[in-house]
Specification:
Structural class of chain B: mainly alpha
Radius of gyration of chain A: 23 Å
CATH architecture of the largest domain in chain A: 3-Layer(aba) Sandwich
Structural class of chain A: alpha/beta
Strand content of chain A: 15-25%
Strand order of the largest sheet of chain B: 1-2
Strand order of the largest sheet of chain A: 7-6-8-9-10-13-14
Number of strands of chain A: 14
Distance between the termini of chain B: 47 Å
CATH class of chain B: Mainly Alpha
Number of helices of chain B: 12
Order of helices and strands of chain B: HHHHEEHHHHHHHH
Largest sheet of chain A: 7 strands, mixed
CATH superfamily of the largest domain in chain A: Response regulator
Distance between the termini of chain A: 75 Å
Oligomer: heterodimer
Radius of gyration of chain B: 19 Å
Chain lengths: ~375, ~290
């Protein structure tokens, strides 16, 4: 067979175009893929398992209801090892797969900070659970938050402690990572605005083995109430036990980790009668109850915020893609931002232009190990 | 004063845990001239064995304790045969790397078998602690301190007064000479690994009710214990105990009076200071003097 110049040119064009056509065909494949960075190993591996289960449960519901753009959704999970380098690596692995249309990042702010530059570079929507207010205020338009940020939790903790419990002498305890520092700062600011600046502002390093110096500092400060931001449940468990052993029984209102399943198991009675701000409270709404029931039926353990935020993230991302009618990132972004009054397990989603979907918190009480819904405090500013 | 006493008690308690693990480091170093970086994982494995027997199977605590320690002795044998023995004629570097590999293998094996969930292990006593005047004494820390003191005496008696102890000492000091005197060096090293695994396991079981049982618990303690051995003088039994206790007290007081977030920093600051100004540690001899 004689090779003509036209055949040769056609061959070259086909050779150059083939990878793009194949990639494009793959992108338009049988499923719509969602990438998820989750701690499969490391200190948060247990809660990471709950997060993956929540996401899978949501995707099952989405697929049953017709899927995403008429196709079945598929979840691709990468282990973030509960570390910052780990999540950067996990995200880069996922980002390399061009057919993944959206992602779930971390519930830990410090990890979201670590991956944020790569998210900006990639330019695809990433759902996050980290609650450092800065995450959605640093010019990264691809981050969408599915838990209320710490400016709300700080305000709710302060509001509840000062107005409902009537306490004015606060000890604020927080981890020194991004989450804890931002949370502690937000709580201190809220307390100052309410005319009750903390008498003690104490940071601690994650994975501490002993909190005696911290407990003694709280005791010496004369505080009549404690507000806390703990990142890891192990730390929370050790601190709670030592706090009670050393005779400190002041009211304690904590960030969401104080009411999660692992913390309750580890600390046991040491956490009885404490209060927590909870983005997820099973009795707070019909959607929350429905998620709670579905999760209990499927996973056989009580639901908490580790699973509820990923459940909502997958549900809203899928709804956003369906609303956009496309997987084109900019269109999906606009669709998510236009979502209002969307009933989720965590609460009612009303996205603002920063990407924050929720604007209030529930207050719950640990009543002898049972988490009881008390009230919801919502902010409109 | 109340504050100082409370901090002192806690510092000694946490320091005693470092000391127990440090002791394991020292014994293996003396016998083999290598650092066993899986020593922390011995603690973790023993704590998980306790969870299996005492919590999951519901066996009596004392029985679970004995079985867990027996399991650790077996692990010591396997570790010696599988990690040290094949590399015994090589330089120290391959052996150290092998212990690091074994540490990763142990941590991930437990993760694969038992999952990542941290577990709760009850302490020996029903009462969590006693109030002695202004100081609260955690019963588990009291037990840890008591066991450490007992081990100091036991080690002295064992290594100085028994034939087996003297054989172990002879082996650690000069293997060739020990061998010429009819001591089975490989048996002595095997016994050392068994004893170190049991000691590490004991530390893990004792500290588990305080720190919870998790995959990371071993590595967290081992890092401090390693620092304690350097501070005390690498290869010295008394140094390991003193180094561990000193480290616990320094970091507790440093956290209370200087900065809580930099608590771990104090321990390693002391370590760096020793490495610069007294690399042989508190009780160690200079290499030249040793020769």
């Amino acid at each position: 067979m004689k090779l003509t110049r036209r055949d040769f040119a056609a061959g070259i064009v086909a050779g150059i175009a083939a990878p793009h056509i194949i990639t494009s065909a793959r992108a338009q494949g049988a499923t719509i893929k969602i990438g998820m960075c989750a701690p499969v190993t490391g200190p948060a591996a247990e809660s990471g398992g709950y997060a993956v289960k929540g996401a899978k449960l949501a995707l099952e519901a989405v697929n049953k209801a017709g899927g995403i753009l008429g196709k079945q959704g598929e979840l691709i999970v990468e282990d973030d090892q509960t570390t910052n380098p780990g999540i950067v690596l996990a995200f880069s692995k996922l980002a390399a797969q061009s057919d993944i249309v959206g992602f779930l990042g971390s519930i830990r702010s410090t990890q979201v900070h670590a991956m944020a530059p790569d998210v900006l570079k990639l330019g695809k929507p990433v759902m996050i659970g980290g609650t450092d207010p800065n995450l959605t205020h640093m010019g990264n338009k691809w981050l969408f938050r599915f838990r209320p940020n710490d400016s709300y939790s700080g305000r709710v903790i302060a509001e509840y402690g000062v107005s409902t419990l009537g306490k004015k002498k606060w000890a604020v305890l927080h981890s020194t990572d991004a989450f804890g520092t931002a949370g502690g700062k937000a709580l201190t600011e809220a307390l100052t605005k309410l005319g009750a600046p903390p008498v003690l502002d104490q940071g601690y390093a994650n994975q501490s083995q002993d909190f005696t110096p911290v407990v003694l500092a709280i005791k010496q400060s004369g505080a009549d109430i404690l507000g806390s931001y703990f990142t890891f449940e192990n730390d929370l468990g050790i601190f709670a036990r030592q706090l009670r052993q050393l005779g400190v029984n002041i009211p304690w209102v904590g960030s969401p980790s104080i009411v999660n399943i692992t913390a309750l198991k580890l600390a046991g009675p040491a956490l009885h009668n404490t209060y927590g701000v909870a983005d997820y409270a099973e009795q707070s709404s019909e959607a929350s109850k429905a998620f709670g029931k579905a999760y209990r039926d499927a996973v056989k353990v009580a639901p908490d915020n580790q699973s509820s935020w990923t459940y909502d993230a997958v549900t809203v991302l899928s709804a956003g893609i369906n609303k956009a009618g496309s997987t084109e990132p900019e269109k999906v972004r606009e669709a998510i931002l236009s979502i209002k009054k969307f009933p989720g397990a965590e609460g009612e989603y009303n996205f603002d232009q920063n990407g924050d979907g929720l604007h209030g918190y529930n207050i719950v009480k640990n009543d002898k190990g049972n988490i009881v819904f008390d009230k919801h405090i919502e902010f409109n500013d | 004063m109340d504050l100082i006493l409370q901090l002192l008690f806690t510092g000694i308690g946490i320091g005693a845990v470092y000391a127990l693990v440090a002791l394991g480091f020292v014994l293996i170093f003396r016998a083999t001239n290598v650092v066993n970086f899986a020593q922390g994982e011995f603690s973790m494995v023993a704590a998980y064995l306790m969870v299996v027997f005492a919590v999951d199977l519901g066996w009596p605590y004392w029985l679970s304790f004995l079985i867990a320690l027996a399991g650790m002795a077996l692990l010591g044998v396997i570790f010696n045969l599988g990690v040290y023995y094949p590399l015994r004629h090589r330089t120290y570097l391959p052996v150290i790397i092998a212990t690091i590999g074994a540490s990763i293998l142990l941590a991930n094996s437990v993760l694969a078998i038992y999952g990542p969930q941290p577990q709760v292990l009850q302490g020996w006593f029903e009462t969590p602690g006693i109030q002695l005047g202004p100081v609260y004494l955690d019963s588990q820390y009291l037990l840890i301190i008591g066991v450490t003191i007992l081990l100091v005496f036991f080690n002295f008696w064992f290594f100085e007064k028994t034939l087996l102890g003297k054989k172990l000492q002879a082996t650690s000091q000069d293997k060739e000479m020990a061998s010429l005197l009819g001591i089975s060096v490989s048996t002595m090293i095997m016994i050392t690994f068994i004893y170190s695994a049991v000691l590490g396991g004991l530390a893990g079981i004792l500290v588990a009710p305080v720190l919870f049982v998790s995959i990371q618990m071993g590595s967290t303690i081992a890092l401090k214990a390693f620092a304690a051995t350097i501070i005390g003088g690498f290869g010295d039994v008394a140094g390991a105990i003193i180094g561990g206790l000193a480290l616990g007290v320094i970091e507790t007081f440093g956290a209370a009076y200087i900065s809580v977030p930099y608590k771990d920093g104090f321990a390693f600051l002391v370590l760096v200071a020793f490495l610069i100004f007294r690399p042989q540690g508190i009780f160690g001899e200079r290499v030249a003097e040793k020769a």
